[in-house]
Amino acid sequence: MSALMAGAFSFAQLFGYLAFALGIAAFWQRDDRRLRYLVMALSLAYTVHFTLLGNPTAAASSLISALRSWLSLRTRSVRVALAIVAVNIAVGSMLVTEWRHILPIVGAVVGTLAMFLLKGIRLRLALLCGTCLWLTNNVLSGSIGGSALEAMIGLTNGVTIVRMLIVRHREKATAASL
Fold this sequence. Notes:
Layout: H1 3-8, H2 11-27, H3 32-53, H4 56-74, H5 78-95, H6 102-117, H7 120-141, H8 144-177
Helix pairs in contact: 2-3, 2-8, 3-4, 4-5, 4-6, 5-6, 6-7, 7-8
């Protein structure tokens, strides 16, 4: 097996592929609750993935994101959201050793605010912004599955946003015709 193939199928990369599958399932959901559960699961896979890749900032942000997704299923408290943001910034700032390590921190902060304060299309638009930050992080970290995941999340989330806009338009057209 070539060095490239060994790297592509390393233990670390396998967790990236697991995150990939969970992420596609998550962002295909129109149900916010299912979206949050699947984001929690993909965040846990990412935690292991980035730990094995040697990116502690991304691993910590992913672990905090898993906690965030779980808490967002139980509360919509702005205080809880701000506490998670503060923890993410505090932990992240202790781990940053390169400029690129800031990307997952900002991505996680955007995701936290989205999960607690937004719903529906606005939730997905904010998560799309976070996706761009994570995609950049993943490319720079050498994460094959993670890079593919964020690219596909962007595409899948975009398609879901369009689907939701179509449903909204149809509902408004139906209401207007009554």
